[in-house]
Amino acid sequence: MSLATPRSRWLALGVLSTTMLMTILDGSIVTVALPAIQHDLGFSPASLSWIMNGYLIAVGGLLLLAGRLGDLIGRKTMFLAGNAVFTAASLLAGAATGQNLLIAARFLQGVGSAMSSAVVLGILVTLFTETRERAKAIAVFSFTGAAGASIGQVLGGVLTDALSWHWIFFINLPIGIAVIALALPVLPADKGLGLASGADVAGALLATSGLMLGIYTMVKVESYGWLSAHTLGLGAVSLLLLAAFFVRQATAKTPLMKLRILRSRNVSGANVAQMLALSGMFAFQVIVALYMQKVLGYSALETGLAMLPAAVAIGAVSLFISARLAARFGTRATLLAGLVLLFAAMAYLTRIPVHANYVTDLLPVMLLIAGGGLVLPALTTLGMSGARDDDAGLASGLFNTTQQIGMALGVAVLSTLAASRTEDHLAAGKDQATALTDGFHLAFATSGGLLVAAFIVTLVVLRPAKPEQQPTAPTEPSAERSLAA
After folding, report:
1. 162 burial level (CB within 10 Å; 0-12, 13-18, 19+)
2. 248 shares a domain with 259
3. Helix axes 392-410, 99-127, angle to 10 degrees
4. Alpha helices for 352-391 (secondary structure H)
5. Which of 70, 226, 402, 408 is 20 to 30 A from 219, alpha carbon to alpha carbon?
């Protein structure tokens, strides 16, 4: 599945990155527009959360299945179908005039996003097989994700204020159509292994239901509490379903997920480290924005502009520094350095005051968060290092699944802790701004702890490698297998 010319490969990377930009842009742009949507459609605070939760549950629950199906029916086919579903769902969401249609459209957007994003990294690592070239490609891909998050916050404020919230979804239409039109000639065709090579229906049902139920349980923790019957009961059922899935994979003739992919310490360790790191980074991505709006009184647009230096810093590091550091010092060392910078950012935030000065209290954090430009490319490289050509989609789906679990875990843990601390301080008679800030301090400290845990996993589990021994390309199918096919 290699392209004929380097130029073609980089054009294909542009298509893949644009899809990721669109999906990440959609997530951040919706967050900014939630108050306007609530006012227009009459959402209650509880029902409003389903605009985000419906999308998150669909993505997190279907990524693993979509990744494996991409290997079976062809990753290009899955990519195109996912973009078509996402674009159509965006049209429905933008045209929604009622709560139920908007929530259904958001769930459908999540389905389309899972289908396309599950195979993106699988396509990327089979296109770029040389170590240095792949490192550059992953750096560009990671930069796109950082840019999408920050651009979404700014663009969401502009579109909502200048036009209406409907346009935060309509903006996906020209992007989605352009991606599909360009992907048809640019992405290489792959036939896939065929459904007979791994159509494990029982495994698919166990994995999808277990992941969806688990993510639903995590995003509802703030409403029910950690020790409630709702959380403990559904959490136990989710774990049982996932345990049954792994038992099934160990015994099935054609498993949905080949467990050999987890035997690699670098792959397993990178997925665990990613889950912990993204849980911790949620504190920056969301809670800092809440602090700016609820404590400092920033508007949505002002918040997006205030966080723009972070996107520039992450982008500059991922594009111009991360690949060079990995080539010289190794991927694990680069990952460790990035985690140290992120921890420093969270530690700095634990002392942020109620009446903050942007230059002295927030701008240093925006610069330290550049560590994400080292962490994200390194984790991607390690997480995909065990992928072979015939299961790169599965590895991509697994890696993206742990991303979603990490974000859901961050929502559950950090939001709940912050809200609980805030309520305690309000009950003690503190003013709202002080109570909110104290709650956010606890979230930032917990985030630092999660990043320390990611550092320990990286240090203990991941194997150091000399620069010239960085993770290599997926193994191409053997001549015998090609002839047999």
Report:
1. exposed
2. no
3. 130
4. 363-368, 372-383
5. 70
Which two structure tokens, joined as six digits, stand for 414?
């950090």
484 assigned to some structural domain: no
Instruction: Please tell me whether residues 111 and 221 are part of one structural domain.
Output: no
Helix axes 432-460, 416-427, angle to 10 degrees: 150
Extract the tokens encoding 468: 């010239």
Kindly state the helix (H) or strand (E) to which residue 352 belongs, with its residue range: none
For residue 409, being part of any structural domain is answered with yes
Report pLDDT digits (tens) over 279-304.
888 767 778 878 888 889 887 678 77
The total of other beta-carbon atoms located within 10 Å of residue 367's CB is 14
Residue 266 and residue 290: Cα distance in Å, rounded?
Answer: 35
Average pLDDT over residues 364-376: 89
| Contact residues for 360 (Cβ-Cβ < 8 A; gap 6+) | none
Structure tokens at 42: 């009459």
Express as a percent the part of the chain with pLDDT over 70.
86
Tokens of 261: 């992919």
205 in the same domain as 68: no
Residue 483: inside a domain, yes or no?
A: no
DSSP 8-state code for residue 47: H
Q: Is residue 479 part of a domain?
A: no
Which alpha helices (H) appear in 163-220, and where do they start and end? 167-170, 172-186, 201-219
User: Whole-angstrom Cα distance, residue 26 to residue 22?
Assistant: 6
- The CATH number for 193's domain is 1.20.1250.20
Three-state secondary structure call for residue 144: helix
Which among 332, 406, 343 has a CA at the least distance from the CA of 371?
Answer: 343
Dihedral of the alpha carbons of 63, 66, 68, 69, in degrees to the nearest 10: 180
Q: Tell me, yes or no, whether 219 and 364 share the same domain.
A: no
Q: Looking at 252-330, list the stretches that DSSP marks H as alpha helix, in order from N- to C-terminal side.
A: 265-282, 288-294, 300-306, 308-320, 322-329
Q: Which of 211, 228, 253 is the last residue of a domain?
A: 253
Tokens describing residue 309: 């230096």
Provide the domain limits for residue 205. 200-253
pLDDT tops 90 at residue 342: yes
380: closest CA among 125, 150, 133? 125
Q: Tokens 């009622």 correspond to what residue?
A: 98
CA atoms of 116 and 172, how far apart (whole Å): 14
* 336 and 438 share one domain: yes
Q: 44-48, 154-158, 399-403 — which one is most confidently predicted on average?
A: 399-403
Q: Specify whether 120 is located in the same domain as 208.
A: no
The model's pLDDT over 40-81, given as tens digits with 9 standing for 90+, comes to 888 776 677 778 778 877 887 787 788 778 878 888 889 999
Domain count, the chain: 2
- pTM reported for the whole predicted model: 0.76
